[in-house]
Amino acid sequence: MRRDLRPIRPGYEAAVEMKLLTGRRADLVEDRTRVVNRLRGTLLSMFPALERALDMTNTGPLRLLTGYQTPAAIRRAGATRLTKWLANRKVRNARALAEAAVEAAERQHTAVPGEKTIAKLVHTLAEEVMALNEHIAELDKLIEGRFREHQLASIVLSVPGIGITLGAEFLAAVGGSLDEFDSPDALAAFAGVAPAPRDSGKVSGNLHRPRVYHRRLQRVFYTSALVSVRYDPNSRRFYDRKRAEGKKHVQAVLALARRCVNVLWALIRDRRPYQVIPPVTATA
User: Which one, 19, 86, 87, 145, has least CB within 10 Å?
Assistant: First the structure.
């Protein structure tokens, strides 16, 4: 009755493990993003200058917020004492971070209502983000160990833009092999990077994004395409050519992601890694 459902087959043990681990990692990353946003908003309500000066994705600023949250406390500590405090906790670039914090504190001499409560919340949220970072780092080690044991790991990693995490998510999404996909078109349709026809009557060539596709696999190919544009010359030339043809940024990246599907499918079929082919230059 349903033609959009894929058959259920027993999965490989490694693929099942990577699916569980990468799924858990995705949940933790979402939790971290939510807590970081809450931390930014809370700090902004009390100490906007420091919120602008700190990068909450780094360990150093988070460590700073576990000890000092208010402008008055940072001014009392001073740059020298704050540098020593951060260095004792193995924070990189402790001096620069301390000076940035003191400079931000010098620009604010007003205590907002509820400052003590806000400071406690900032301390708690900073510790939560650090704990989530540790959990994600532990999962990354597990994912890398399980991924590198897979027979296709070296082939997947050779493709520009695909690293450990994206490679593990790819193998988890396809069940550890491409046995279910007899062509790159089938894999592209499953990943949602190939447009599906919606022709009606005399209208043909009406293409739209498919309604049923693997969203995490689509993210794998889209993210890898974005990364490869920055670091792989061949991918960059392909992207620039699509932009020159009039395609928007997202359309050009999706076209590159579709090309990545073809390349990866062929590499896995032939059991060989990706090799960079230098561009052909015309000779006089």
Answer: 145
Helix (H) or strand (E) holding 283: none
Predicted TM-score (pTM) of the model is 0.83
Interval 237-271: pLDDT, tens: 999 999 999 999 998 999 999 999 999 999 999 99
Opening angle at CA 11, ends 7 and 16, nearest 5: 125
Look-up: residue for tokens 């360990």? 59
Is the distance from CB of 261 to CB of 269 less than 8 angstroms?
Answer: no
In one letter, which amino acid is 185? Answer: D
Run of H or E including 108 = none
Query: Left (φ > 0), alpha (ψ -120 to 50) or beta: where does 231 sit?
Result: alpha
Tens-digit pLDDT profile for residues 187-231: 998 998 876 555 555 655 555 566 678 899 999 999 999 999 999
User: Treating both helix axes as pointing N-terminal to C-terminal, what angle do 184-191 and 164-174 enclose, rounded to 10 degrees?
Assistant: 100
Q: Tally the residues of the chain.
A: 284
Q: What is the largest CA-CA distance in the chain?
A: 77
